[in-house]
Queue: 2 jobs
Job 1
Amino acid sequence: MKQLVIAIDGYSSCGKSTTAKAVAHLLHYAYVDTGAMYRGVTLHLLEHGIAFDDLPAVEQVLKDLTISFRRHPQTGRNELFLDGANREDDIRQMRISNSVSEVSVIPQVRHALVAQQQRMGRKRGVVMDGRDIGTTVFPDAEVKVFMTADMELRARRRQMELADKDEHVPLADIIDNLRKRDHIDSTRAESPLRRATDAVLLDTTHITISEQVDFVIDQVFSAL
Ligand code: C5P
């Protein structure tokens, strides 16, 4: 069967990664969480005390740091590794969410990560979620979905995800973080978050995860 690229873009906490993972599983496709890669670079810069505007140091990190994904043998979860160490839980912390959009505006960071994402998807048969997949990483993706949802619902979802990891954050702080990230992500000069002209819009406010998955699968069948 023809191997496609499925691009799932949209705002934070709309259910992109849950949907993308389930679609990849059903189709036996690879799954790439591009947000995790921006989070990984952010974690590394913070841990090494590298200022985001120290461009020579940031460029050196982009050359030296190895970012990869591995599938957990028991849970099947796709986990982010930095230089061979599992950092999946660390990159999900609120301190990373609070800084990641500042790192993802840096053109050098975007160029390096977009190039790596293009290599990861070059054989196609991949579901990739992020902000610029359908516009910049794979403008020729056969399926493009742009996801959105009501702000309060997005914040409640993020709050539950954090609580599952024992991080208890007031709803107002999460709403503030999501608003700031949406703003920075949509207004940056380099590959801003926007709906590709040929992307189908999916508002997840009133639908279940399985309905979201069915919606994407329907798009896939129409593209085959
Ligand atoms: O998807 P997630 O919320 O984990 O993404 C974290 C951040 O990474 C986003 O708010 C955005 O700043 C950045 N990002 C990006 N381009 C992507 C994926 C994520 O700029 N393709």
Job 2
Amino acid sequence: NRAKQADQPYLFYSAEMNRRSLARIKLATDLHHAIERNELRLYFQPQINPESGLISGAEALIRWQHPVRGLLSPGEFIPFAEENGLIGLVGNWVIEAACQQLAQWQQDGLHLPRLAVNLSARQFQPGLAERLLQVLRPYHIQPAQLELEITETLLMQVDERMTQMLQELHDAGFTLALDDFGTGYSNLAYLLAFPIDYLKIDQRFVRGLPYDANNVAIVRAIIGIAQNLGLELIAEGVETIEEARFLAGMDCDLLQGFYLARPLPAEEFTRLLRDGIAQPVN
Ligand code: C2E
Ligand code: MG
Ligand code: MG
Ligand code: MG
């Protein structure tokens, strides 16, 4: 019981830590096998142009269909993969799977202008742009169709190497998006220093629009920055019609969130691409 545990903190913690480290070893071997056993999945969440109601892009979000634990969200294994040097393998799988799916849609005559993938800092190794181009080539995918989402935290490691890699990705024609904008250590000079195409407003600032006065102020400011710097803007985590209407009224370029659609398995997203989504937001 609790009182007893509180009396024996060391015993309790060592048992708990042992249990956890065993669980982590298990997770590492499992994750190694997940790729071979074809247990990783990409889910797709549309990004909607609120004026037309058309799907202008999508974000690929990884899931792990674990044989015992069920469908795991990225929060349950990506940080772990980053710590354990497995993120390179997982990241490569994501790019390959994204290209495969884009090629499939292309072949089926379904048009998706852009598919975004999330990149971890660890994937930024010299030669990244060239490696990505090599993956795209056999699928006949153009770099502009693949959007690379990076976070502010990554940009904080501003060194010459990082600047050069981002410039190479941009020069190769990849679309770059800054994810979770406003949540990191926001140095606005980054926006000028790096060749970024899209800003993604983090969902915490979207929440409660237009009733949350603080978020209204923040979102107005972010929209102003994006417009003045000529960046496209995507709002993340749009959950209500009120949020959607406010953002559409502010000329936010694209909306992404449960109000429009949840991240969907490939078959369901394909149906959405074929049949179109709901009406314009107004
Ligand atoms: P993110 O890139 O910011 O992705 C958006 C997250 O918000 C997704 O969570 C998505 O399911 C969720 N979301 C979308 N719309 C709504 C909404 O209306 N309301 C709420 N409450 N949530 C919404 P998910 O799929 O669990 O992914 C979490 C994070 O994991 C992602 O955040 C991204 O940082 C990371 N991640 C996902 N896939 C990958 C991947 O392939 N590679 C790497 N390195 N990281 C990934
Ligand atoms: Mg993202
Ligand atoms: Mg985000
Ligand atoms: Mg614009």
